[in-house]
Amino acid sequence: MMKEFVAFLGAEDGAVTVDWVVLTAGVVGLGMLLLIPIGIAITGTTDNIAVTITSAQTTP
After folding, report:
1. Each residue of 40-50: pLDDT tens digit?
2. Which residues contact residue 56 at a Cβ distance below 8 angstroms, ignoring those fewer than 6 apart?
3. What does the angle CA 8 – CA 14 – CA 17 come to, to the nearest 5 degrees?
């Protein structure tokens, strides 16, 4: 039993998985932080386009 426990403590197989989980969470977090200002800018731009289209005069 003690031999298996020592082998378990020395195993590094799960460490790679933990690294990938942390790395992936960081990438997703940065992506979310970048999407917030982009979404706000897109909303403002679409509002400006809607005003321009609405105020455009067409000649028959």
Report:
1. 999 989 999 99
2. none
3. 175
pTM of the model: 0.53
The two three-digit tokens of residue 35, written as one number:
């999407």
Tens digits of per-residue pLDDT, 9-42?
A: 887 777 778 889 999 999 999 999 999 999 899 9
Structure tokens at 36: 């917030």
Whole-angstrom distance, CA of residue 4 vs CA of residue 18: 22
d(CA 38, CA 30): 13
- Which region, left, alpha or beta, applies to residue 26 given φ > 0 means left and ψ of -120 to 50 means alpha? alpha
Give the dihedral sign, CA 23/27/32/33. positive
